[in-house]
Design brief:
It contains 22 helices and 19 strands. The chain is elongated. The two termini are about 35 Å apart.
């Protein structure tokens, strides 16, 4: 995407505005318990946002380097989970909020287990769980892991590391306590030195936004496509960030801002809105609890202005995902039908119900859709759920729709899901379950039109319209011949010639010269186009399916130009081909008058359909 699109986007303009406003906020002070941190310029302010689509927005000092400090704890915790597994990590570090300062000694009585991995005690224990690999000691592995999040090589700020090491006596004391309780299985000095180095990694506000975006994107870096954290551990990391990431301000943070977050005394905050974006803010002035004053205010405003609180209740009902609902009394498939068949559908088409869904299906919306369908089940025998405009399904909605499918089958009804090829998890779940022997299965039809056609065929078969069908060899019932005498129809037949086409063969191509029309005597043909021919996303689009007693290619009678669509034989098909130059002027006039009447009726029906869709 053109970078200029981001420069003029509403998001960028918003970030520019709050950056300008927050420059006047001068509360708080730069951290001084690590002497080297006092060198930071209090006026620095950088804000960055990275969406799960990989769009990057940034303003101010977003590329100013500073040390990550305690924000590193979230990444290290995820790496420890990957190295040791959830059960082992939980045996060493808890997940309960301590409600105390970041450097408090909050250990579980009796076991010595730290309360959570976001306070220093828990973070030191977590760092001690990082394993070395052949040719890759723990620190190298940590730098490589951080690099997968940020999308660039990472390095340590040596002066800050030495400053932390020279003054970090309290952290050394914590490490020895942990070693005494058996929480650490390596020497305390080795672990605490690794911890000091981890906190001294250089980052920017943009890096923090990238870290948040990886977690928002289920562990995958949205810019590089690299997996930063196994997806099964993302929710665990976000959980402890939500409850413990802001230390003794965690309750106030989740109450006011409502996003998983982690702060550091270097002045950084990374926040996550799962499934949407990561946010990085850097400003060195800290409040009494060790959190960036401007960083907190920026996140508060963003959350409030855009209703981004994690617990903001968005509507998730059938009203939001149900695009439209209709039956086959007026809107039928593209399959051409005889007058008798159309009469059946006009009378019985209400028994076929089509639901077009849209957006993302979550538990609430799927449950609401299911309830609506079940409420109508007594009056409906065939249901089609069109998922073409559905962008995603979660596990809860998959289970709800799966249960709905079984319930419908138990009632002796038929349910089909169409246009679901992009919903991989949903398809995999349904394909792995047998649905009461339903054949064809709920995923049999790729598109809604073919599913509706199958349902229509069932209604027509039940009505047994075969007795009302006309002889296909009798042209008098063709709509083009309704104004002709018997002698004229016979002359028309004599002027034509019978042709046979094998199933699957192409009768003519779009663009071919139009010299004749075809009356179908037996078999079936499909009229279709190739959307975006030559394009990777092109596909075969059916315009109509026609059977005995119908005609195709007749529109060219008006201008005898080139074909506008392709026609193929679906099965072995027999037609009467009539060349336009063999038609007398008198018969041509009668055909054109019949065609005008036919298309006038069609326009009227299509207008009603458009009104219905609107």
């Amino acid at each position: 995407m053109d970078k200029r699109a981001f420069q003029f986007s509403p998001v960028q303009r918003y970030l520019d505005r709050i950056h300008e406003e927050l420059l006047d906020l001068n509360d708080g002070a730069v951290a001084d318990y690590i002497p080297e941190l006092t060198r930071a310029d209090p006026s620095w302010l950088g804000i960055a946002m990275v969406t799960v689509d990989g769009h990057v927005y940034q303003v101010g000092d977003s590329r100013q380097s500073f040390t990550i400090q305690s924000i590193s704890k979230a990444i290290t915790y995820g790496l420890a989970l990957e190295d040791r597994g959830l059960d082992h990590v939980l045996s060493k570090v808890g997940v309960e909020p301590s409600g105390e300062a970041f450097n408090s000694i909050s250990l579980e009585p009796g076991t010595g287990r730290p309360m959570n991995p976001m306070i220093n005690a828990g973070a030191i224990a977590t760092t001690g769980l990082i394993e070395g690999k052949p040719g890759a000691p723990p620190m190298q592995r940590m730098l490589e892991t951080f690099g997968r999040y940020t999308g660039r090589p990472m390095e340590i700020e040596e002066t800050v590391y030495r400053s932390e090491s020279d003054t970090g006596h309290r952290n050394r004391a914590i490490a020895h306590l942990l070693f005494g309780h058996g929480i650490l299985d390596r020497m305390p000095e080795e672990v605490v030195d690794l911890y000091f180095r981890q906190c001294s990694i250089l980052v920017t506000a943009r890096d923090l936004a990238m870290i948040g975006a990886c977690l928002a994107n289920n562990g995958v870096n949205p810019v590089t496509g690299v997996v930063a954290l196994q997806s099964r551990y993302v929710e665990k990391v976000l959980s402890v960030m939500s409850t413990c990431g802001m230390y003794d301000f965690s309750g106030g943070w989740i109450f006011n801002v409502g996003m998983p977050a982690k702060s550091g005394v270097g002045g950084g905050i990374t926040a996550v809105l799962p499934g949407q974006f990561g946010l990085g803010v850097f400003s060195p002035r800290l409040d009494a609890k060790g959190n960036s004053v401007r960083g907190i205010e920026a996140c508060k405003r963003l959350s409030k202005d855009f209703s981004l609180h994690l617990f903001h209740v968005a509507r998730s009902t059938s009203a939001t995902v149900m695009r439209q609902v209709y039956d086959c009394t007026k809107r039928t498939s593209r399959r051409g039908r005889s007058a008798a068949e159309l009469a059946v559908l006009a009378a019985q088409g209400h028994r076929i119900r089509i639901y077009e869904l849209q957006g993302e299906l979550l538990f609430g919306s799927a449950e609401s859709v299911g309830a609506e369908i079940l409420s109508e089940l007594e009056r409906v025998d065939y249901l089609v759920l069109d998922l073409k405009r559905v962008i995603g399904t979660d596990q809860a909605s998959i289970l709800v729709l799966s249960e709905l499918c079984m319930r419908v089958a138990d009632e002796g009804k038929r349910l089909f899901f169409t246009d679901s090829k992009n919903l991989y998890r949903f398809r995999k779940h349904l394909q792995g379950n047998a649905y009461r022997g339903q054949e064809p299965g709920p995923l049999h039809f790729e598109d809604t039109d073919h599913a509706v056609e199958w349902c229509e065929n069932q209604l027509i078969a039940e009505a047994d319209t075969t007795g009302a069908d006309i002889s296909v060899a009798d042209l008098s019932h063709q709509y083009l011949c309704t104004a002709m005498t018997g002698e004229e129809i016979e002359a028309l037949r004599q002027a034509g010639r019978e042709r046979e086409f094998k199933g699957g063969s192409l009768i003519f191509n779009a663009g071919d010269c139009a010299e004749s029309m075809f009356f179908i005597l037996s078999g079936e043909v499909e009229v279709w186009i190739d959307t975006g021919a030559g394009h990777p996303l092109s596909h075969h689009l059916r315009l109509a399916s026609l059977g005995p007693g119908m005609v195709f290619g007749e529109v060219a009678l008006v201008n005898q130009k080139r074909r506008t669509a392709n026609v193929s034989a679906v099965m072995d098909t027999r037609c009467l081909e009539l060349r336009f130059d063999a038609i007398t002027e008198t018969l041509r006039v009668k055909m054109l008058m019949s065609m005008a009447s036919h298309f006038a009726n069609k326009i009227e029906r299509d207008t009603q359909l458009i009104q219905q869709l609107a």
